[in-house]
UniProtKB/TrEMBL annotation, chain A:
SUPFAM superfamilies: 4Fe-4S ferredoxins
A Pfam family of this chain: Fer4
The organism's place on the tree of life at top rank: Bacteria
Name this protein carries in UniProt: 4Fe-4S dicluster domain-containing protein
Keywords: 4Fe-4S, Iron, Iron-sulfur, Metal-binding
InterPro entries on file: 4Fe4S_Fe-S-bd, 4Fe4S_Fe_S_CS, ET_IronSulfur_Cluster-Binding
Keyword Transport: no
UniProtKB/TrEMBL annotation, chain B:
Keyword Transmembrane helix: yes
Protein name (database record): Cytochrome c7-like domain-containing protein
Alphabetized UniProt keyword annotations: Membrane, Signal, Transmembrane, Transmembrane helix
Gene3D superfamilies named among the record's database cross-references: 1.10.287.3080
Lineage, broadest ranks: Bacteria, Pseudomonadati, Gemmatimonadota, Gemmatimonadia, Candidatus Palauibacterales
Membrane-spanning segments: 20-37
Keyword Cell membrane appears in the UniProt entry: no
SUPFAM superfamilies cross-referenced by the UniProt entry: Multiheme cytochromes
Organism: Candidatus Kutchimonas denitrificans
PANTHER family, per database record: C-TYPE POLYHEME CYTOCHROME OMCC, DISSIMILATORY SULFITE REDUCTASE SIRA
InterPro entries: Multihaem_cyt_sf, Multiheme_Cytochr_ET
C-alpha cells in the first residue's frame, strides 16, 4: 500500500482527539436530553392524577334517550348547550341541534334547522299539503364503536369508561380527521382554539350527579339522560317501554342516542 | 495512561462495538425521549391522556340545575311541581343561574316579560305534537303579557266559564226578568262545549221555525197548561215569531 495514499479510517484512528470529541458529544447529548425534555415535562407533572373525588366511572354507563313524539321544537336545549359549553354564536356550530321534518303529501321530505333551532322555527309555508311534520333533536351519539376515535392520529379523542366520547383539548392537533369520520355530523372545529369540539354529555355536570344542560331545560321530557345498564333509571324505563331505534344502524357504530317514535324518513 | 479497551485481542471487528454503542445510545435516547414526551397519564385509562378528564371536569357550570333552586325558592318550586309547568325547569325560563346561586344578593337571573318568550313553546305549529297546548298569538288576548292571566309557575289549563251568562250577560239579565225566566238557554239553543272555548268558531244553534215556539205555545202543544196559547196557523203566519216577540224578553205588545 502506498503510504502516501491516505486511508481516512486509519487517519482517524491515529488522531484520538477527534474520537474523544464525538464521544463527548454523545455523552453531552445523553445528559442534556433529559434536561431539555424535563422542561417540556414539568408542566405536565403538575396536572393532577385523577378526576372528581368520589366519582367512580366504572359504576356508570351513560346514554341518552330521545322521544321524538314529545319534542315541541322550542330550541331551549340548543340555547342551553351553547351557553353551558361556550359554543361560539357565530359561525353556527352546534353540539346539539333540532331538525324539523316536513313530509309532504307527494312524499317529498324537507328538513330544515334554521340556526340549529336555537330561535325556534318560523311558520311553515304551504301548510295545506303537509302529510306529517315533527322535530328531531340531534347530538353526538356517543357511539360504543366510534369512528372518530379510530381515526384520531394522536389519541386526543377517546371513549371513557363510563361511555362518553370526549376530546382532549390540549392534545388535539386540529387535523379534522374526526370531523370527516363522524357519520352524524356531530363534530366541529373550534374557530378559536383550533381543536375539534363536540357534545360531552356535559361531562363536568354528570360527574357531579347533574343532568346535561339540554336535559335540564327540556320542558317536555323529550330528552332522557341516564344509565343504560341499571334497571331502575328513567332511561332504562324509557328503553323498556318504547321501541327504540338508533340512527344509521348499518354503519355499526353502535350509537348510544336511542330514539323512540322515530319516523322512517329520519336520517 | 493506556486506554481501556475490552475488545483488545479478540476477533470482534472494531466497528461492531462502536455500532453497538451508537445503537444503544439511540435506543436509550428514544426510550428517554418517549418517557419524557408521552404525557404522564397517557395510557393510564386507555389510549388517551387521563389528565384530560380533569380539564374537562373542571369546566365551569352555567346552569345550576333545578335542585339548587329548591333550597331558597321552596314555595315556587312546590307550586311549580304541582302545576302544568312541572316539567319545565326553572332555568329553562330564567336562564343560566349558577352565578345567582353562588351570589344571590348581587346576581339576579333574568325574568322573561315578553309574549315571544312563552310563545317559543306555545305558539301553534303543525310540527308540534298533537295535544300540546298551543295558541294562536294573533287571536289569543294580544297586547297583554301572558302572566297577567296565567301564573308562569303554575299556569292553569283553559278555565271554561260554566255559565252562558259569563259572556252573554245582557241577554241573561233580560231573560231573568222576562216571562221566559224559567227557561234554560239550552232549551232554545244547542250549545256545544267548544262554543265556550272558541265561541266564534263553534256556534250554537238558533230556532229557525215558527213550529219551535209552537212546541210550547200552540193550542195543541204538549206543554204546561199555564203557558199562553196562540193558533199557530192563524197568528201572524207571514212572519217568524221573533220578528215581533224578542225571545229573551217576550212581551205582548
Amino acid at each position: 500500500m502506498n503510504p502516501s495514499e491516505r486511508d481516512p479510517a486509519r487517519e482517524e484512528s491515529t488522531r484520538p482527539t477527534q474520537e474523544v470529541d464525538r464521544r463527548e458529544f454523545l455523552k453531552a447529548c445523553s445528559l442534556l436530553a433529559p434536561i431539555i425534555l424535563g422542561v417540556v415535562r414539568v408542566p405536565l407533572l403538575n396536572a393532577q392524577e385523577s378526576e372528581g373525588d368520589d366519582y367512580d366511572p366504572s359504576e356508570h354507563f351513560y346514554a341518552m334517550g330521545i322521544d321524538v313524539d314529545k319534542c315541541i321544537g322550542c330550541g331551549q336545549c340548543v340555547v342551553a348547550c351553547g351557553t353551558e359549553n361556550d359554543v361560539p354564536d357565530e359561525p353556527y356550530f352546534f353540539n346539539t341541534w333540532v331538525e324539523r321534518y316536513l313530509i309532504r303529501t307527494d312524499g317529498e321530505v324537507e328538513v330544515d334547522s334554521p340556526n340549529g333551532g336555537m330561535e325556534g322555527f318560523p311558520p311553515t309555508t304551504a301548510e295545506g299539503d303537509i302529510r306529517r311534520s315533527f322535530f328531531v333533536p340531534k347530538l353526538c351519539n356517543h357511539c360504543a364503536n366510534p369512528p372518530c376515535v379510530q381515526v384520531c392520529p394522536v389519541g386526543a379523542t377517546f371513549k371513557t369508561e363510563d361511555g362518553v366520547v370526549l376530546v382532549d383539548d390540549e392534545y388535539c392537533i386540529g387535523c379534522r380527521y374526526c370531523i370527516q369520520a363522524c357519520p352524524y355530523g356531530a363534530r366541529w372545529l373550534d374557530p378559536e382554539k383550533h381543536v375539534a369540539a363536540k357534545c360531552t354529555f356535559c361531562y363536568h355536570r354528570i360527574v357531579e350527579g347533574l343532568v346535561p344542560a339540554c336535559v335540564e331545560v327540556c320542558p317536555t321530557g323529550a330528552r332522557i339522560f341516564g344509565e343504560v345498564e341499571r334497571r331502575a333509571t328513567p332511561l332504562a324505563r324509557f328503553m323498556r317501554f318504547n321501541e327504540v331505534q338508533v340512527l344509521k344502524p348499518h354503519l355499526n357504530t353502535e350509537p348510544k342516542a336511542y330514539y323512540a317514535n322515530l319516523d322512517g324518513e329520519v336520517r | 495512561m493506556a486506554k481501556f479497551d475490552p475488545f483488545r485481542g479478540t476477533r470482534v471487528p472494531q466497528q461492531v462495538p462502536r455500532l453497538v454503542a451508537v445503537f444503544a445510545v439511540a435506543i436509550i435516547g428514544l426510550l428517554v425521549a418517549r418517557y419524557f414526551l408521552v404525557p404522564d397519564t397517557f395510557g393510564q385509562l386507555g389510549h388517551y391522556r387521563a389528565a384530560a378528564l380533569d380539564t374537562i371536569v373542571a369546566h365551569e357550570k352555567k346552569y345550576a340545575g333545578q335542585q339548587a333552586c329548591q333550597l331558597c325558592h321552596f314555595q315556587i318550586m312546590q307550586k311549580r311541581l304541582a302545576g302544568n309547568h312541572k316539567g319545565v325547569g326553572c332555568e329553562s325560563c330564567h336562564g343560566p343561574a349558577a352565578t345567582h346561586v353562588s351570589d344571590p344578593a348581587q346576581i339576579k337571573p333574568s325574568i322573561p316579560s315578553e309574549r315571544e318568550f312563552c310563545l317559543r313553546c306555545h305558539e301553534y305549529s303543525p310540527s308540534r305534537p298533537t295535544g300540546f297546548p298551543q295558541i294562536d298569538p294573533v287571536r289569543h288576548n294580544p297586547m297583554s303579557f301572558c302572566s297577567n292571566c296565567h301564573d308562569p309557575h303554575a299556569p292553569e289549563p283553559p278555565v271554561i266559564p260554566g255559565q252562558c251568562s259569563a259572556c252573554h250577560g245582557q241577554i241573561a239579565r233580560q231573560k231573568a226578568v222576562s216571562h221566559h225566566a224559567g227557561l234554560e238557554c239550552t232549551t232554545c239553543h244547542e250549545a256545544p262545549e267548544e262554543h265556550k272555548v272558541t265561541p266564534r268558531l263553534v256556534r250554537p244553534t238558533k230556532p229557525t221555525e215558527r213550529s219551535f215556539c209552537g212546541g210550547c205555545h200552540a193550542r195543541d202543544a204538549d206543554s204546561p197548561p199555564h203557558i199562553p196559547r196562540i193558533n199557530l196557523r192563524l197568528h201572524n203566519p207571514r212572519y217568524v215569531c221573533w220578528q215581533c216577540h224578542y225571545p229573551h224578553y217576550p212581551e205582548t205588545p
